[in-house]
Design a protein that fits this description.
alpha/beta, 217 residues, 6 helices, two-stranded antiparallel sheet, Glutaredoxin, 17% strand
């Protein structure tokens, strides 16, 4: 009986686009997670540690290297237009574009990343045009950067400070089902704390959404 309950609990933790919100990373308050590495000993993205550098092209063909944005707050948004959770966050007045607009300034860079194995630059460009997205959508169809960051859901958010240290990872907000009148926007809270030189209220939260559709490793 106990074994059956454990199997059921694990099955509910990660769901597809049509299922419930994914609970991928437990909340960890303000503390940093222990540094992690993959099977080959390559350091993975860990709150409180330097964010792994990467270089990706966006849907228009422009190259972006994370290290080139040193000195700015960088927000990484894992995305997929096919995901209902993502579509919800681009469909009302608390969506991603409005959050990015509220945080805009010379000190903030917002980069969306699509690690879906089937995604194409043309699809990302169409998505940007449909929603008047002002920031680039980086192409990670082989999933290398997504796996390095441990991106599990769309959306899955990361905030990197001007020194290149990962300071937040998790959900965009506290409202997986879109039912709260005034959800807490964790990304906005993290950026505002960094700007003010204050500790981030919650350095890690559980991301929710569709599972990232990685191809074969």
């Amino acid at each position: 009986m106990l074994r059956s309950l454990l199997v059921l609990a694990l099955a509910l933790m990660t769901t597809s686009c049509d299922g419930a919100a994914s609970a991928a990373v437990p909340s960890a308050g303000n503390g940093a997670s222990p540094a992690a590495s993959d099977a080959e000993g390559v350091a993975l993205a860990t709150v409180g540690e330097p964010a792994p550098d990467f270089r990706l092209r966006d849907s228009a063909g422009q190259s972006h290297r994370l290290a080139d944005y040193r000195g700015k707050i960088v927000i990484l948004e894992w995305t997929s237009p096919e995901c209902p959770f993502v579509r919800r966050h681009y469909g009302h007045d608390t969506d991603m574009v409005h959050t990015a607009s509220a945080l805009r300034g010379g000190d903030v860079v917002w980069l969306a990343i699509d690690s879906s194995h089937f995604n194409t630059p043309a699809a990302s460009e169409a998505w940007r045009a449909q929603h008047s997205i002002p920031y680039p959508v980086l192409q990670d169809s082989d999933g290398a950067v997504g796996r390095r960051y441990g991106a599990r859901t769309t959306p899955h958010m990361y905030v990197i400070d001007p020194a290149g240290v990962l300071r937040y990872q998790g959900a965009i907000d506290s409202d997986p089902r879109g039912r709260e009148d005034a959800p807490t926007n964790y990304v906005r809270g993290a950026v505002e704390a960094l700007r003010a030189g204050r500790p981030i209220p919650r350095a890690e939260t559980a991301p929710y959404g569709c599972t990232v559709k990685y191809g074969d490793a």
